[in-house]
Amino acid sequence: MGGQQENGQSEAPPIQVMVIAVTPFQQNCSLIWDPKTLRGTVIDPGGDIDRIQAAIEKYGVKVEKIVLTHGHIDHVGGAADLAEALNVPVEGPHEADQPLIERVADQAAQFGVDGVKPVTPDRWMSEGEQVEIAGRMFDIFHCPGHSPGHLVFFDKELRFAISGDVLFAGSIGRTDLPGGDHETLIRSIKEKLLPLGDDVSFLPGHGQASTLGHERATNPFLT
Known about the structure:
Layout (H helix, E strand, L loop, with lengths): L15 E7 L4 E7 L5 E5 L5 H11 L2 E6 L5 H4 L2 H8 L3 E2 L6 H5 L1 H7 L19 E4 L2 E7 L8 E5 L4 E5 L2 E2 L2 E2 L9 H12 L7 E4 L5 E2 H7 L5
Parallel strand pairs: 3-4, 4-5, 9-12
Antiparallel strand pairs: 1-2, 2-3, 6-7, 7-8, 8-9, 10-11, 12-13
């Protein structure tokens, strides 16, 4: 996303993205910031907040908020503690995931994880709204199927989406968890995400980044 200036210096990219794999589920917690202002956002701090805080300190990011794609433990498990440590608000997901978030301690117990606290978002988000991430405005899409209140965030100018657990490189989100539904998830992908354009890069909640065009052509769940 960066270019060359006449003096040979590289132009700073609009945003920097650092992925921190957290929890035994290797969830992609993302630290996203503006390299010029160092204003930043943490997406989906599922746990291991010491590692997230180490990355924040390493890059000197001024975290302004925490943003959540959905209410599963590997995405929200560390949000309450990190928000308290950084003294920042929590935004998202959609209110339909409130029951999941309220039961996050029960989710933790199922997986043998202790000390997880439910987080109370300062703002529930809805489709048609926008959220500011690292000083840039992202459109919000409600994409249920993996969870009832799952959200995807999209920067039209950068052609970049944060897809959480809706769509992965070569796969899709699980639908066997409470509130999941396979047909609903496929509809979310085909009606909300794929129309954004084949050139759109997306960062999923687990695994490698990909493009919507690559997944449209090769993802076995979509072809």
